[in-house]
Amino acid sequence: MAKMAKFNTWDWVALVLLIVGGLNWGLIGIFGFDLVAAIFGEMSFLSRLVYTLVGLSAVYIAIEAIRWGRTKEAVEA
């Protein structure tokens, strides 16, 4: 059985932000409704901050996923 990677606090924060971002993009794609803009205002400082954090989370998780893949290879070898 494969070992699960242990998530630290940053991993969880990034994952939650990615889920929020993914759900927001789903709402935009299906209904044309931007939840972040509806809550924080269209392109307000807070909405831009949320969009920026979601983008940074995507970069962070992409880098971590590469690391997790390498860790899995090391465990299997």
Automatic annotation (TrEMBL):
Species for this entry: Thiohalomonas denitrificans
Full protein name: DUF378 domain-containing protein
InterPro entries in alphabetical order: DUF378
Superkingdom of the organism of origin: Bacteria
PANTHER family: MEMBRANE PROTEIN, MEMBRANE PROTEIN-RELATED
Protein's UniProt keywords contain Transmembrane helix: yes
Alphabetically ordered keywords of this record: Membrane, Transmembrane, Transmembrane helix
One Pfam family hit: DUF378
Segments passing through the bilayer: 12-33, 45-63
